[in-house]
Design goal:
This protein is α+β, with helices and mostly antiparallel strands and about 475 residues long. Helix content is about 25%, strand content about 25%.
Length: about 475
């Protein structure tokens, strides 16, 4: 079946949106019979234009000097300045100075991020610029396209050189992304370009991840900021036009697109809040969703990803699962670099069947559950959709159990050693059968003793038979506050 629409992407550099510019785009979309639009992972606007209206839409954009992007957007943490991050040298003015340095149109994904914030991903770009502790200097991390390998530039680079260094790197990487070595790339750039730099005295420290609750009205100093999230990722054109009109009427100069596919409006004055309440009510916009629904990253325009997300969130709600300090990514297509401390990866359908019931997924997590880490550790493989909720809930529990207890700083525990406990472990892949959680994927309920397992039971990871499991002794320690 032929697709009835064509996706048009419009970039907003750094996620900064001019209300007047957005209103013009929405008027063009209305004329092309578009009712809904979406925002993408890279803070761009995604418009599904009917195929019959494509020429009309593109011509209208050209007349208004609006670029229909065929290149990636420059993504940034600009919107966090002043509301999520305050103690930093990276101000809004410096961000804008950096954006203006890109006198060329980047063909690679570029991230510009404050090292102190955890709202925007650090490494989802190809060229990832992250502010250093030293004022006006930046770390640069390079991820070659279509790979997950990350390379650190050997020196810090001065703010004023970000644009030209990025351009120089792109010129060398063009067509050589998988063959050029990072040390060779560094030498080539140094030979071609002079720029201000300094040695890296301290490696980048990832801040402890915390995703701020970014929805609803939030008081800040003598004004408010408003976050708007849509469960289906769709924003009606009529709502956004009304939103732009309020911004223009109240002289609110900027809107902000986030990498969570939401919108943020800052600097809403007290006397104007009633206008925003009215427009939210008029369009029936709910701005108080559960936190465990806001911390997900799903591929752009992926209905299958949204269905999977909703399926797992329903389980979270029924089981009352806590997800604070975690975020989740869903990867259905190869090469997707969704941000997350827990990642769901769709397996290649080996049977080539179109039956979604036969689809299997891998559950992976990052070391220390830091979503900015590029390393992934398998937790469960070959998991059917109906068992994703229980397994991910168990992984969330593992996160809290492994987290450092802040009480230990003030209360010295008395450690009481308990005799070693026998566990049953697969000798091939070292998977331990947990009698507490059982094995939902194989219809083994929680609390089932190893001795009560049916003879057909096998390892949940490598499918080794039951008789291969060995008994291993593990010492358990319990902390009793003194």
């Amino acid at each position: 079946m032929l697709k009835q629409t064509h996706t048009i992407s419009i970039n907003f550099t750094g996620g900064i949106i001019s209300p007047g510019n957005l209103h013009t785009i929405l008027e063009i979309a209305t004329d092309a019979r578009v009712k809904q639009v979406r925002f993408g992972l890279r803070q761009q606007l995604l418009i599904e234009v009917p195929v019959k209206q494509i020429k009309q839409f593109e011509n209208a954009c050209k007349e208004k000097d609006i670029s229909c992007a065929s290149t990636p957007n420059i993504s940034s943490s600009y919107l966090t300045s002043g509301i999520f991050v305050t103690d930093t040298w990276l101000t809004e003015g410096i961000y804008k100075d950096v954006f203006e340095m890109f006198s060329y149109t980047p063909s690679l994904k570029i991230n510009i991020c404050d090292s102190k914030q955890t709202f925007m991903p650090f490494f989802t770009g190809h060229l990832n610029w992250i502010s250093a502790k030293q004022q006006h200097y930046w770390h640069l991390y390079i991820r070659y396209p279509k790979t997950g390998e990350l390379f650190s530039w050997p020196e810090l680079i001065y703010t004023n050189n970000i644009g030209e260094v990025s351009n120089c790197i792109e010129s060398f990487l063009s067509g050589n992304e998988t063959t050029i070595q990072i040390d060779h790339l560094f030498t080539q750039v140094k030979e071609k370009l002079e720029y201000l730099c300094r040695p890296i005295e301290q490696e980048l420290e990832y801040p402890h991840f915390h995703l701020p609750y970014y929805e609803g009205f939030n008081k800040h100093d003598d004004s408010y900021w408003l976050g708007i999230y849509r469960r289906d990722e769709e924003f009606s054109v009529d709502f956004l036009k009304d939103l732009c009109n309020i911004c223009l009427e109240t002289k609110t100069g900027q809107l902000y697109a986030t990498s969570w596919k939401s919108l943020i409006i800052k600097n809403i004055k007290h006397e104007h809040r009633r206008l925003w309440d009215y427009i939210l009510g008029k369009h029936n916009i709910n701005v108080r969703h559960a936190a465990n629904e806001l911390n997900w990253q799903v591929e752009d325009n992926s209905e299958d990803g949204l269905v999977l997300k909703r399926h797992i969130i329903r389980y979270f709600d029924s089981a009352d699962v806590r997800t604070y300090g975690l975020c989740f990514g869903i990867r259905l297509k190869p090469g997707n670099s969704c941000f997350g401390s827990i990642i769901l990866n769709k397996q290649e359908n080996r049977q080539k069947s179109r039956l979604k019931g036969l689809q299997r997924y891998d559950i992976l997590y990052t070391p220390d559950f830091s979503p900015n880490s590029g390393n992934l550790i398998p937790y469960r493989t070959d998991v059917a959709k109906e068992y994703l909720g229980p397994y991910i809930s168990a992984l969330c529990k593992l996160f809290y159990e492994s987290s450092h207890d802040p009480l230990q700083k003030t209360i010295q525990p008395l450690v009481v050693a308990i005799p070693e406990k026998p566990v049953h472990q697969c000798p091939h892949c070292f998977t331990v059968y947990d009698e507490i959680t059982g094995d939902p994927a194989q219809q083994i309920p929680a609390g089932t003793l190893f001795s009560d397992l049916p003879p057909y039971y096998c390892c949940s990871v490598c499918e080794a038979p039951l008789q291969d499991f060995n008994i291993t002794m593990v010492e358990h320690n319990f902390n009793i506050p003194s």
